Amino acid sequence: MSGTDLPRLVWRGLATWLLLSLLGWFWAQPLLGWFIPYIEWIIGLAANAYRAHVSLNGAGAEANLELQMVLQQPLALSAQQTLKPGIKLTVVHHVLHDLAPLIVEFSLLLIWPVVSLRQRLLLLLAGIPAAFAVLGLTTPFVLLGLLEIQLQQIALYYHFIRPEPWILQWLYFCEMGGNWLLAISAALLCVRLIHVTRPSA
């Protein structure tokens, strides 16, 4: 890539990112709706003490992903305080935060220099399972991290400091830009995969 190509690539990247962001803004519900069973499945694997239900509420820019968790077994907050089965906890997360990593990933895949349309299509196809991986590592655990914050607050109400689990650290990582880092890494992995398997494309 020559020095004169770089500014053009940057402008293409900004335009692509803006276009995908607008699509995410207006079509957040149908786009993320495809992933809800997958998100619920991962949450069920990661937190089997609860029965999880994920839904989309609101429309457009006001849409939120809502997680309702019903406790299936007693949960000890301290030696004196235990949450009983049947208690329902609810957390919400704005859908644009969940779509942002996918927008970053596909923006990179759409502007990455290729030598043929076939290679571009292969790159975008590789991006689909990568998108599932990125979303699976971010959204379910961000929702569970928000749930853990609620449990921390309940414990503090009873004057008990609950040990901080790893999922809170992962929530902080994702919310401070780690989700974008995962998306960029996924896009670069797709690029590497296509270039390795199709060197003459």
Automatic annotation (TrEMBL):
Transmembrane segments: 9-28, 99-115, 122-147, 167-191
Keywords: Membrane, Transmembrane, Transmembrane helix
Descriptive protein name: Uncharacterized protein
Keyword Transmembrane helix: yes
